[in-house]
Structure formats: structure tokens, C-alpha cells
Amino acid sequence: NMEVDRLMLDKWRQWNVDMTTWRSIGSGPIMEF
Amino acid sequence: MFRIAKNLVRTFEQSVQDTLALSQDSGSLDAFFQSIPPNLLSAQLESPVDAVSEGVKHTNVNETLSGLRIVWVDEMQFQLQSFFDYIVGFNDDPVPVVNNQHGFSYPDYRRITSIFNEHCGRTLKVNIWSAKGGTFRDEYVNVISKDSNDLDDVSLNHDERRPSSGEAHQFQALGFKVQWTPLIASTFTYHILNVNIPDGPAQLAGLIPDEDYIIGCQDGLLATGGETLLQDIVRSRANYDLVLYVYNKVSDCVRPITVHIGPDGRLGCNVGYGFLHRIPTVKQRSQQGQQQQQEDDSVPFSAESETAFVPSAFTAPPVPTKKKSKNKKGSQPLAMDDYFNEGRDKSSAAAKLAESDVTAPPPQKQPSSN
User: Fold this and answer.
1) Which of B64, B171, B221, B253 is most worth mutating to test chain A (most A CB atoms within 10 A of its CB)?
2) Between B73, B179, B216, which is nearest A30 by CB?
3) ipTM of the modeled complex
4) Which is nearest to B81 in space by CA: A31, A32, A15?
5) Each residue of B280-332: pLDDT tens digit?
6) CA angle B194-B197-B200, nearest 5°?
7) Strand extents, DSSP E, chain B
8) Are the beta carbons of A33 and B177 separated by less than 8 Å?
9) Where does residue B307 fall: left (phi above 0), alpha (psi -120 to 50 degrees), or beta otherwise?
10) What are the beta bridge partners of residue B178?
């Protein structure tokens, strides 16, 4: 099972967290550059 | 003997307590933030917050120290990492800030845009603090200037809802979004210590003890942190699905998982929270490992590759019947084969994986409609 997990994790390596729709404790607007 | 062990534990606990006390001490900087050069923090450390008003003194600098947190990264901008990275300076100068009437610091986006505009056609050094181990590094961003046609496009497609920095971008999109956020927010993570309910939500979702950290939750419900927050959220989602974002320290990747919380409102694992359970520094993967990863990425996901590396001479070897029975036992020889084949060609195993009901890999990016 652990080996299966490793393969699955490899596939997520390039994935990024998109926090733009999250509630956050940050202040001010989200700025795009 | 027992007394020695007891003293050793006591000494260790004392040192942890000291570290924690130090980090909570209003005067000293949290050990996690000390990698940041002091000159980049000076603007915030010297802000007039301490001297302020309304009877409230903000004495704990560790709670207010902020940076431009990366909250979204485009595919092309791989050197920045969403969630973990904070911009704390440009060209070794602090992020320009302005103070509001209450003495709180806010980023001066007009000035920041000017910095990018001034570097059109050049490279800009961006100072980054990472929540992975509290490390500091520099990244270099190529700022490419827009041509006149692009400038016209921007003015026509201006979105009224998008917050404006008050200054036009004279550079092509850099591919990231930021928000001014306290650095401490990135330490609100929950370390999976062990899975304690067989076939419970944690085990079914494939949480890996010691390696995995829950860093977020759907809608940002874990944003405020707190030792009992995860427990409270899980309990409140009894009989419902819950999306958690999990970081794996061995693979250095984040994955979303969906857990179905039962009527008992339990996740089925023990978690650690606090100073000792923050996300550690990424261990450098060996060059061989990186090369292997590149090969894996380039190999298409097809069943054909299963036989691609098998020479024809070995397709039908004269295998004695005894050998078959050995394999059936599934003991040492099979384990050794697996050991030698590990990392050689994962496509066959991956094909099997695709048939199973394990969490699917990330979807292919659709071409942007813009």
C-alpha cells in the first residue's frame, strides 16, 4: 500500500495550492502580478 | 539507569520549553523567522504599533510580522510555491509598507508595482522566506515589458472587481498572486503521528503517519490555527465529506484528499500541533532521483511501456516450475525483484493504480480562455 501511495504522491508533485478562494487571516486584497 | 533516562527526558523537555518560551517572548524573534536578514524586517519591527493607541499594545512581534504570501502560482512560475512562500523583500530591500491610522503596516502596492515597472527588461531579485523549515532564499524574476498592443488590451479588459494598485502594470504577467499575511499563519499545520482507527477516514484517505501534515481545509477553515481547531472542524462535519490539503515531507508535494467523517466525528488519527510539528526543511533529493523523476515525467502513461524495456530474449525464458512456486510464496526473492525494479519503470504499476480507486492524479490544465 505504501508503494502505491508513493506513485500517487509523485503524480501530485507539480500541483499547486490555490488559496485565492480561501478564507484567510491575511489582510487587504489579493494582488496579481 | 532509569534515573539517567528520566533526567535526559527532563533536560530535553526543558530545552523545548525554553525554546517555546523564547518564541513567545515578545522581545525576541521566533526561531522560524530568524533566517530572514534583519534589514528586511526593520520596517515592520520599527513600526509605531508598539506606541499605539486604543489601549492595546501589540507586544508580540511574531504574530504581526507579515510578508506577501504566495496564494496562487501559474504553471510557468515554478520557482515560487503557493502557501509556503512569502515575499519579504525586493533586491535586499524590505517590502515597501505604509502605516495606517492605527499603526498597522500594509504593503504599498503602488510602490511595489513601480519596482516591477522599473525593472522591465531586467531581472529582479525577490527575497523569499519559506515556511518549509523557515528558510530564506533569493529568486530571480525576469520582468518582460509589454508592448503597446498589450497595454491597450489591459485598458479594454479592465475588471472593476479586481483590486487595483493604482499604477498600471508595464510588464507582462509574472504569474503569481499575493496577499499580505502574517508569517506565523504558515505554521498552523497538523502533523499526522499515527492512524488509530482501522478503516477509519484517515486510513481510507491514505494519510501517512509522520510524513503527512494537514496544512489546510476546504474554504480555508483552518486559516486561524489553534490546537483544537482541526478537531472542532472534523467534529462539526460528522456524516459529511471534508476536503483537507495534505503536505508530504518525503515527496515534497501537496495533495487534496476528501475524507468522509462518520457519525462519531473522528478522523481516525493522532496529530501533533505546535513548534515541534512545523513543516521541516525539504531534504535535497539526490541527482539520480531527480533524473529518474524527469524520466518518469517524460514516459507516457500507457500499457505499451510495460514491455518496452524487456528484451525479446527474456520474454519466454525456460523457467523451471520450482521458481514459479517460489514466487507464489511471495517471500524474499519477490521482494528483492521489487527492490531492484524500484524506480525503473513504474508505468505498469501506475496503470494498475489507475484502475484502482485511489485518489486520481491532478487534472490536465485546460488552455486558458483568455
Assistant:
1) B253
2) B179
3) 0.90
4) A15
5) 999 876 555 555 555 555 444 333 333 334 333 333 444 444 444 344 444 44
6) 110
7) 66-73, 85-90, 93-94, 97-99, 105-107, 122-130, 135-143, 176-182, 190-195, 212-217, 241-248, 253-260, 269-273
8) yes
9) alpha
10) A31, B70
